[in-house]
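Bumping my old thread because nobody answered last time. Still need a sequence for this structure:
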């Protein structure tokens, strides 16, 4: 069983019906060209990927300026690191994903001409580990196709619920933690993966190559890191989940990179 993602010449058709309700966002859309909106969306996504790099400096500056902010932030950190707040990242506490269906991500999919191609039927009552390659610079394919409905995952695989797994450190950063949870992201720790697969109809999405694979991303090449990355196989065996290979065509070509010889 396999599924593929392609960034090709044919893009998704935008559903104009989602823009019917007048709002401030609608007024902005009337004034901003589609291409500019798509580029701004990509910039926003890029900022979220590196959220820890700019959020922590802001918090450090804030706590030096206000004792009240320092107390609130310290209390919140205790809650998410040692209190009940840490349960959400491992799916041990209920937390919905209300932003998953936001129509704005269709703009991103259209800009990248992204589409999700199904090559096999998957039982909606089964449990699955989607192993995606390559990671690329920031795994945009995982976001477009699995963290959101921009590529129509639910229409292709009705009854399945995908859960994208990301770095555990993202759930220790205030603000970024909530952003990830609102899209249904969970910690990629083993405990979290096992918890997600206890429910029939669940599919966890992993990029086994991780950050190490991101550092060797080159255009027109697929540099994959496979050795010493077999933990997802053990999780599938232990939970009885089926492995689903996912290949992200075009992921390596989204950014110009330099890999030292």
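Sorry it took so long. Here it is:
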């Amino acid at each position: 069983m396999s599924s593929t993602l392609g960034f090709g010449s044919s893009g998704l058709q935008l559903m104009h019906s989602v823009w019917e309700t007048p709002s401030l966002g609608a007024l902005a859309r009337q004034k901003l060209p589609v291409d500019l909106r798509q580029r701004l969306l990509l910039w926003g996504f890029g900022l979220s990927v590196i959220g820890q790099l700019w959020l922590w400096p802001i918090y450090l500056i804030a706590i030096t300026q206000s004792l009240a902010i320092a107390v609130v932030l310290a209390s919140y950190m205790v809650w998410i690191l040692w209190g009940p707040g840490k349960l959400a990242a491992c799916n041990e506490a209920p937390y919905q994903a209300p932003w998953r269906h936001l129509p704005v991500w269709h703009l991103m999919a259209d800009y990248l001409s992204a589409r999700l191609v199904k090559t096999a039927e998957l039982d909606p009552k089964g449990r699955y580990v989607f192993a995606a390659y390559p990671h690329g610079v920031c795994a945009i394919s995982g976001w477009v196709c699995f963290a959101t409905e921009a590529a129509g995952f639910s229409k292709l695989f009705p009854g399945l619920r995908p859960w994208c797994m990301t770095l555990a450190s993202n759930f220790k950063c205030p603000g970024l933690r909530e952003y990830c949870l609102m899209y249904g992201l969970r910690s990629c720790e083993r405990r979290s993966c096992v918890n997600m697969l206890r429910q029939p109809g669940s599919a966890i999405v992993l990029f086994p190559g991780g950050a190490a694979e991101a550092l060797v991303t080159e255009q027109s090449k697929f540099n994959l890191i496979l050795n010493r990355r077999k933990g997802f196989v053990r999780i599938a065996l232990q939970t009885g989940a089926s492995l689903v290979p996912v290949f992200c065509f075009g992921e390596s070509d989204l950014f110009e990179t330099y890999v030292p010889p």
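The mean pLDDT is 85. Let me know if any region looks off to you.
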